[in-house]
Amino acid sequence: MPTSSCSIEIPVSYETLNLPHVKISHHPGGTSTATPVMILTLNRPEKYNAFTSEMANSLTEAYNIFNVDSRVKVVVLTGAGRMFCAGSDLDVGFGDGQGSAVEFRDMSVVPGGRVALAMHRCHKPTIAALQGSAVGVGMTMTLPAAVRICHEKSKYGFVFTRRGLTIESCASYFLPRLVGYSRAMHLITTGAVYPPSRKYFGDLFTEVLPDSGQVLIRALEMAEDMAKNVSPLASSMSRALMWRGPGSPEEAHLLESRIFHHMIGQKDYKEGVNAFLEKRSPRFEVDPGEKSAPSYPWWPSTDIALGPIVLKPSKL
């Protein structure tokens, strides 16, 4: 990850951005400005969306912008063509192993960890719509997502050990927490690919659909519902409580009480209650980047880059 400050300029339209190997679309289509639901597509269908440094940089940049853009509420991540992602582009490779580990971490040809962290740190939740098969980094990049939907006839796997490699993209943190250590050990040590119905995946895929064409449609339905009915602030803080929670019930009680106290003082709480009582859809307007709890982040900070400078357009 870069070690110097970078600027983030929020575009009026994401469809004007030139991000190599990635396509960003507004949803619904035909709009000239950003929408609450954004579609982020891995866009190398001729290479089965094989992962490259350009794709990693594009995904990281997109998530960094989504994070600070109050217009965006939910991100749907999918792939173009038959496969979601065939893993790293082995025609490019990973270099020769020379140089320092820090340089490799920050500037390697396949920096999947930067993508996983950008997705994880983004206040806006991601729904991963795996419309086709995915292996390697094609799987690990989706682990920080809030929801994963897939195709029942496609195959998925963590094939690193079959390529003489270890897992990456923070998978050693996310995967055991999502599926349990026993299943994670099986998936990693076999390095095999399986249909999503196999028990080794546990509940990693929350929905498995029979038609690949249904996957993105279902993900967008879910994203629309979330964007319309879920407070971005409450969602962001709740996910942080689960991923960054303390180690005991007593500590969890103390932390949750502080965050809950903060939330009942926010406009979203009043709006959510009034909308329920008045039997109407809520109009949540609180930006989680601006109204996070005073104690956020409540965990010890690990610095891997300097914070960005946000440059907002004069008129959105």
Q: pLDDT average, as an integer?
A: 90
Can you list the strand order of the major beta sheet?
Answer: 2-3-4-5-7-10
Shape: globular
Question: What is the H/E string?
Answer: EEEHEHHEEHEEHHEEHHHHE
Helix content: 25-40%
- End-to-end separation in angstroms reads 29 Å
Contiguous helical run count: 10
- Major β-sheet annotation: 6 strands, mixed
Specify Rg, calculated over alpha carbons: 20 Å
Number of domains: 2
The CATH topology of the largest domain corresponds to 2-enoyl-CoA Hydratase, Chain A, domain 1
Return residue spans where pLDDT drops below 50 for at least 5 consecutive residues. Answer: 1-5
From the helix content, strand content and strand pairing, which structural class follows?
alpha/beta
The appropriate CATH architecture of the largest domain is: Alpha-Beta Complex
Multimeric status of the protein: single chain
InterPro entries: ClpP/crotonase-like_dom_sf (IPR029045), ECH/Chromodomain_protein (IPR051053), Enoyl-CoA_hydra/iso (IPR001753), Enoyl-CoA_hydra_C (IPR014748)
Pfam families: ECH_1
Family: Belongs to the enoyl-CoA hydratase/isomerase family.
Structure commentary:
The protein contains 10 helices and 11 strands. By secondary structure, it is an alpha/beta fold. It has 2 domains: 7-228, 2-enoyl-CoA Hydratase, Chain A, domain 1, CATH 3.90.226.10; 231-302, Lyase 2-enoyl-coa Hydratase, Chain  A, domain 2 (Orthogonal Bundle), CATH 1.10.12.10. α1 (53-68) runs parallel beside α3 (112-121) and α5 packs across α6. The longest helix has 18 residues, at 212-229. Residues 1-5 have low confidence and may be disordered.
